[in-house]
Amino acid sequence: MPDQAACKSRRGVEHAERGAAAAAVLARHLPDGYAHPALREALLGVGFIDAADPQVARVLAEVPAEQLLHLGRSWAYEAYEPELVHAGLELLCGRATLRDRRNVQMLGLLSRLFGRGAFEVLAGLDGQLPAILWLADRSDSWGRLYAVHLLRQVEDPRARSWLLRQAVNGDYLNQYFAGDLADYLAIHEVLGPPPSMMGWSTIWGACCA
């Protein structure tokens, strides 16, 4: 059995190293202009970046928001490399406007690659729960996990209805959230006593395994 604590620690170190590398690249090249080709090439060497990483966030805080929005759109909508599209979505988080909604939804349809980023961008747009639910309906694999995680944080009957009726769709990865979601939604109160000694959350989770 792998040492889970060691694995978690190693992942933390790798994330910190990647954040430091991304921050160094951005600090070196962003002053030269958002379209500088050296920035694109250097970021491809770093891999996926996380704009919420403290080291990256400190660098981005020194760049005008309009420049980051322009760069985010350029990468997200025009780049061919998944790393740059992901980086573009990261830059759009908290900066996107309503004109970005449809493009972000389209990218989110590639839910395995860009589901998390797309949902995070949409979550930053006011009044866009219908857009989030539209994408959630069409997401699978890991994208559906991101949809469930986001909608659990939304205080709205429409979000709860989707979680109750549509979140579990038979995908193999449903097993990662079905049991916990059943407890969160209090399925046992809706359905009454289970037909066995097992709880409803256990039964629902077993059906998705």
Mean pLDDT: 82
Major sheet summary line:
none
Helix content: 55-70%
Report Rg: 20 Å
Q: Helix count, per DSSP?
A: 13
Secondary-structure class:
mainly alpha
What are the segments in which pLDDT stays under 50 over at least 5 consecutive residues? 1-13
Distance between the termini: 21 Å
Oligomer status: single chain
Q: Got a strand count? A: 0
Estimated share of beta-strand residues: under 5%
Q: What is the molecular shape?
A: elongated
SSE order, as H and E? Answer: HHHHHHHHHHHHH
Structural summary, described in words:
The protein is mostly helical and 209 residues long. It has helices at 4-29, 37-46, 54-60, 65-78, 82-92, 101-108, 111-123, 129-137, 141-151, 157-165, 178-184, 187-191, 200-208. Helix 5 runs parallel beside helix 7 (111-123), helix 6 packs antiparallel against helix 7 and helix 6 packs parallel to helix 8.
